[in-house]
């Protein structure tokens, strides 16, 4: 039975690859990335063989505990748990519980995260190959540790399945998870500085974690290498008890889950009015503006982008404070303009097959393009203006304001025009409606990169007049260039915006059914 | 203005398909379908799974470009003059998503506004449609939180909002509860009685036999039989006739073990 479950998982993996060669490319790139990290991890652990026992012990325990934490947290926040072997699907098969548990646990190791964790964990055997006993202890620790990771993640998934299947929780957690992810750089730097200032703390933390369920398994090899047989036995006990307790929890949760399918309750609401639809002109364009804006606010795939925007100045400010070069702050306006304008380049892809409504209603291309662009402009324009002015308070050099403002507006309008053309012609695989924004359909990489980088190169070319003017002012210090840019940016930008919307509209009109057919492929 | 003497000529069909064909890769999904749907008829299209029903209806409604053939809606070529033809049609496609982060009320209003209708007309029609389809209670709920049957009903409302002359409904009764299905049938009957034309595709033969006055049997991308329901079923039940036409009933000899427990 266990072998059956493993074979099922492998078959599912293989069949998912068969759907398109791009899936294989995606898996390949993911595997290469993982291989890089695994290679670094394994090499580091093997090098640690030369280090003294205490240092090696600290590193191995902290790394192991971090892995346990990762396996526990990532399934909830990213709603990216691998549900291909969802226990609920086995309800009708009456698989004996112990075999189901063992099979699902081992199946959890198939796939990139499982394989990567296993390989790195096994490398600790190399770290502790300083004697037979130490190596054997490390091997036992690695097996216990990896199993703990997998079972823990299953317990977390099973425990939160009713919570996680509620749409509201999924929406909120997906967006909230973006914040630490975006601020990863500053956070890591802060932690690193804290550790550098207090090296003893790290060792102490490791000593403490060794006695907790998160670190006990990873400490076995080190204790045996140091000849501490008593503590080693105790830690083996802790690690084994942890795994046993987790397995028991999982069994109980699974037993419950098998007879009570998750139910996501929904609150009924009476007519709450038309919302944004009441505010826009009653035209196709107006309706598309209202629909797009509703999506920017309600759909986590869009809302994620909105959450990132206010963090941009924070990121750039951090960057500036690291390097001491505050000039980079000047470009937060143009950068934001670029990100927001370019974000609607995959607008139609985000619609997925819901786009059929536009097709069957016979929406004119011009109206469709304009509606989507205006919706983005509604909030992008004020944000870009504020972000262009704000840095001047920091740098104090107000002579640069006209140039930067011109550049930012130029980028915003030009970008919206270009996006209107791109999204009328190209679709890119994006997370489907209702999926987590992190869940990129695999295999999109090469195609997406081609569209993205091609589009960006064109945009760079189109805004080159503004860029040259700003560069001239920065280099020569002539304020005239800045003032010219302030006029040229919006004028050229608006002209390109109108041209883009018209061209996009024309392409749209002649190719709507083909666009819908492309979207249906990624469904 | 010149006076034209009325002369008898065949009425323009609500939908006329001529040699529609579509190929996906090496598979021919639709193999030259020609069909006349008379104005004012309640037309059923039945066929086994994978017969090409959805592909045909997609090509007839402007959602999928045919490789060959034409589709005329009240004499307007869907692929030559799409905007004009689409004004005449209300479409409920099968297997596509909806803009489900809108509330039910917003979604139907959106469909109306996209067609360039007045705000007041949209508002009053939305209220009536939601009431008729028993969705008033859930008008403010996001469509993503709707059940499958409610989703079908809200999509139907979106197809009706602009009072089309031809309704093309792909599997309209799938997962709709019996009470709502009866309500929808009433709406459609009244619509046909006042001169509208309805095309439905379905697997449920009983339903088609009771509801429709015309039927076409489609299999493997071809029309096997078409005409009034009585003509097609030729004295038998539509279900028996369908099985005869399509074939593929396996007279199972095996499976004895299923009776031995």
Overview of the molecule:
The complex is a heterodimer of chains A (523) and B (261). Chain A is mainly α. Chain A has two domains: 2-259, no CATH class; 276-522, no CATH class. Helices cover 77% and strands 0% of the residues of chain A. Chain A has helices spanning 2-18, 21-47, 53-77, 97-107, 112-127, 132-159, 161-164, 167-182, 184-197, 199-209, 216-226, 229-259, 284-298, 300-323, 332-343, 347-351, 356-360, 365-395, 401-425, 445-462, 464-476, 479-521. In chain A, helix 5 runs antiparallel to helix 6 (132-159). The longest helix of chain A is centred in the C-terminal third of the chain and has 43 residues, at 479-521. By secondary structure, chain B is α/β, with parallel strands linked by helices. Chain B contains nine helices and ten strands. Chain B has a six-stranded mixed β-sheet with strand order 6-7-8-3-9-10, sandwiched between helices. In chain B, strands 2-1-4-5 form a four-stranded antiparallel β-sheet, with helices on one face. In chain B, a hairpin with a 2-residue loop joins strand 9 (214-219) and strand 10. Chain B is globular and about 60 Å long. Chains A and B meet through helix 13, helix 17 and helix 22 of A and helix 2, helix 3 and helix 4 of B.
């Amino acid at each position: 039975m266990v072998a059956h479950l493993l074979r099922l998982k492998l078959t599912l993996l293989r069949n998912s690859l068969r759907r398109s060669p791009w899936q294989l490319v995606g898996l390949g790139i993911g595997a290469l990335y993982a291989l890089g990290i695994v290679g670094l991890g394994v090499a580091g652990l093997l090098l640690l063989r030369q280090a003294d026992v205490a240092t090696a012990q600290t590193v191995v325990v902290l790394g192991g505990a971090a892995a346990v934490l990762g396996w526990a947290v990532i399934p909830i926040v990213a709603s990216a748990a691998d549900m291909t072997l969802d226990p609920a699907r086995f309800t009708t098969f009456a698989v004996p519980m112990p075999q189901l548990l063992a099979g699902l646990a081992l199946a959890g190791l198939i796939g990139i995260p499982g394989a990567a964790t296993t390989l790195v964990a096994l490398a600790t055997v190399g770290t502790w190959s300083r004697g037979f006993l130490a190596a054997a202890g490390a091997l036992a620790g690695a097996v216990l540790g990896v199993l703990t990771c997998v079972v823990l993640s299953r317990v977390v998934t099973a425990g939160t399945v009713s919570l996680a299947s509620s749409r509201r929780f999924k929406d909120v957690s997906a967006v909230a998870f973006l914040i630490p992810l975006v601020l990863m750089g500053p956070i890591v730097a802060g932690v690193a500085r804290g550790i550098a200032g207090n090296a003893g703390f790290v060792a102490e933390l490791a000593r403490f974690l060794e006695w907790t369920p998160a670190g006990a398994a990873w400490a076995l090899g080190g204790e045996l290498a140091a000849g501490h047989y008593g503590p080693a036995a105790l830690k083996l006990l802790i690690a084994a008890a942890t795994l046993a307790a987790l397995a028991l929890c999982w069994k109980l949760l699974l037993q419950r889950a098998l007879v009570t399918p998750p139910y996501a309750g929904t609150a009924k609401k009476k007519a709450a009015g038309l919302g944004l639809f009441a505010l826009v002109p009653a035209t196709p364009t107006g309706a598309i503006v209202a629909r797009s804006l509703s999506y920017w606010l309600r759909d986590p795939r869009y809302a994620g982008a909105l959450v990132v925007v206010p963090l941009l100045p924070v990121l750039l400010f951090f960057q500036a404070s690291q390097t001491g070069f505050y000039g980079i702050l000047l470009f937060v306006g143009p950068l934001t303009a670029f990100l927001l304008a370019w974000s609607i380049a995959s607008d139609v892809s985000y619609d997925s097959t819901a786009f059929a409504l536009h097709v069957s209603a016979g929406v004119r291309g011009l109206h469709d393009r304009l509606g989507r662009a205006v919706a983005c402009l509604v909030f992008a324009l004020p944000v870009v203006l504020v972000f262009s002015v704000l840095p001047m308070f920091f740098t104090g050099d107000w002579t640069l304001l006209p140039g930067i403002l011109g550049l930012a507006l130029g980028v915003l309008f030009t970008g919206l025009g270009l996006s209107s053309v791109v999204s009328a012609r190209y679709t890119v695989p994006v997370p489907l409606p209702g999926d987590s924004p992190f869940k990129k359909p695999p295999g999109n990489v090469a195609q997406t990169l081609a569209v993205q980088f091609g589009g960006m190169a064109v945009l760079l070319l189109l805004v080159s007049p503004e860029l040259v003017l700003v560069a001239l002012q920065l280099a020569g210090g002539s304020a005239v260039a800045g003032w010219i840019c302030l006029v040229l940016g919006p004028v050229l930008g608006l002209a390109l915006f109108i041209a883009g919307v018209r061209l996009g509209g024309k392409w749209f009109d002649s190719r709507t059914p083909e666009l819908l057919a492309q979207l249906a492929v990624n469904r | 203005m010149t006076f034209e003497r009325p002369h008898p000529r065949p009425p323009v069909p609500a939908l006329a398909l001529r040699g529609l064909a579509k190929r996906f890769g090496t598979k021919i999904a639709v193999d030259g379908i020609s069909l006349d749907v008379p104005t004012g008829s309640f037309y059923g299209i039945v066929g086994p799974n994978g017969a090409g029903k959805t592909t045909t209806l997609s090509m007839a409604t402007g959602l999928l470009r045919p490789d060959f053939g034409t589709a005329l809606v009240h004499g307007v070529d869907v692929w030559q003059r799409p905007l004009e033809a689409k004004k005449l049609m209300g479409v409920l496609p099968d297997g596509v998503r909806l803009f489900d982060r809108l509330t039910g009320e917003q979604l139907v209003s959106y469909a109306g506004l996209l067609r360039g209708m007045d705000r007041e007309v949209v508002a009053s029609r939305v209220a009536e449609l939601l009431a008729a389809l028993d969705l008033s209670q859930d008008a403010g709920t996001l469509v993503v939180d709707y059940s499958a049957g409610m989703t079908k009903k809200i999509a139907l409302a979106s197809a009706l909002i602009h009072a089309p002359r031809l309704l093309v409904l792909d599997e309209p009764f799938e997962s709709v509860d019996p009470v709502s299905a009866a309500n929808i049938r009433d709406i459609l009957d009244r619509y046909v009685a006042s001169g509208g034309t309805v095309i439905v595709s379905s697997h449920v033969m009983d339903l088609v036999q009771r509801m429709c006055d015309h039927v076409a049997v489609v299999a493997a991308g071809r029309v096997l039989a078409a005409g009034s329901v009585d003509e097609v079923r030729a004295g038998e039940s539509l279900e028996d006739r369908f099985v005869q036409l399509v074939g593929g009933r396996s007279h199972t000899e095996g499976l004895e073990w299923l009776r031995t427990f």
